Automatic annotation (TrEMBL):
Stated name of the protein: (2Fe-2S) ferredoxin domain-containing protein
CDD domains, sorted: TRX_Fd_family
């Protein structure tokens, strides 16, 4: 978690209210379809939102894992067809998608 925060803070050229969507592309998440999830986010152009491929987020087996910063909201088992819901509800309206939250960090 610490290294993720440090990475987030290093992007000083972004406005403070901008978000970053990190989609794990490490081995386990890729086996679970993370490449399609990343592509779906990249196809959804949202102003002031950056979408990046991430190294392992440390939650292997629960993927594909998606982390939204700086909100520190984790989504697990994300499917490509669920991405529009995250985009519309979380990224555009600022409301977490409760039913997709990662239970370990959002009990
Ligand atoms: S491979 Fe995605 S969290 Fe580890």
């Amino acid at each position: 978690m610490t290294s993720i925060s440090q990475e987030s803070n290093s992007t000083t050229d972004q406005p403070q209210d901008s978000k970053c969507v990190r989609v794990c592309q490490n081995r386990t998440c890729r086996k679970q379809g993370a490449a399609s999830v990343l592509a779906a986010f990249q196809a959804s152009l949202v102003p002031e939102v950056t979408v990046t491929a991430s190294a392992c987020l440390g939650q292997c087996g629960n993927g594909p894992m998606v982390l939204v910063l700086p909100d520190l909201v984790w989504y697990s088992g994300v499917r490509p067809n669920e991405v529009p819901l995250v985009v519309e509800q979380h990224l555009l309206m600022g409301q977490r998608v409760t039913q997709m939250l990662y239970h370990r960090f959002h009990p």
